UniProtKB/TrEMBL annotation:
Source organism phylogeny: Bacteria, Pseudomonadati, Pseudomonadota, Gammaproteobacteria, Pseudomonadales
UniProt protein name: Glutathione S-transferase
The UniProt record lists the keyword Transferase: yes
This protein's UniProt keywords: Transferase
Highest rank taxon of the organism: Bacteria
The enzyme's E.C. designation: 2.5.1.18
Length: 207
């Protein structure tokens, strides 16, 4: 059985858990990370030298990095609809997964640490305003993509890109800041809320 190491409240662990539900992969999860088993021990560092969750163990195969993990699971166990085999269609999915990691994810970092985690190191008012504005800018990129007639991020079909981006959309709505109207994103969020995997793991890890 697939072994998932990481606490269920971690946004990156939840990518893996949601993907497992979509692909129908049985798994066992163990609590690792802040508040649970430490990730800076030799035992864990032997699995992931970055000391971060999630890590999976699939038989004797160990893998870290959440977006790589969900690609692996879909490729090995999933159907083509979730992670298409056609090169051009798959590239479109990868494009949005990478955008989430490299652009959207970074844009909400300061605001999230300030407004949700209440980190003392993230309480500069000007930097917070700039961070919220940057986050809004990237959410408007998503709004335009969805408003163009796409039911999901990469087109009409639900794919891995929606797992990565859907969790970031949840973070957007759950963070206490002024949210500009994004009707296409709101409709998209409603569609995601209909999926059993999202109901289990998409909303901050709570049903």
């Amino acid at each position: 059985m697939l072994r998932v190491l990481g606490k269920a409240t971690s946004i990156n662990v939840r990518k893996v858990l949601w993907a497992c539900v979509e692909i129908d992969i049985p798994f066992e999860r163990e609590d690792w990370g802040t508040g649970f088993k430490a990730t800076d021990t030799p035992e864990f560092l032997a699995l992931n030298p970055n000391a971060m969750v999630p890590v999976i163990q699939d038989g004797d195969f160990t893998l870290w990095e959440s977006n790589t993990i969900i690609r692996y699971l879909a490729t090995r166990y999933g159907e083509a609809a979730l992670y298409p085999r056609d090169a051009c269609t798959r590239a479109r999915v990868d494009q949005w997964i990478d955008w989430q990691a490299s652009d959207l994810n970074r844009s909400w970092s300061y605001a999230f640490m300030s407004l949700v985690r209440h980190s003392p190191a993230h309480q500069d008012a000007q930097t917070l305003r700039e961070g919220c504005a940057q986050w809004s800018t990237y959410m408007q990129v998503l709004e335009r993509q969805l408003a163009a007639g796409n039911a999901y991020v990469a087109g009409e079909a639900f794919t891995l890109a929606d797992i990565a981006i859907g969790l970031s959309v949840n973070r957007w709505f759950e963070t206490p800041l002024d949210h500009p109207p994004l009707p296409a994103v709101s409709d998209y969020y409603d569609r995601l809320c209909e999926r059993p995997g999202f109901r289990l793991y998409g909303r901050n890890g709570t049903p």
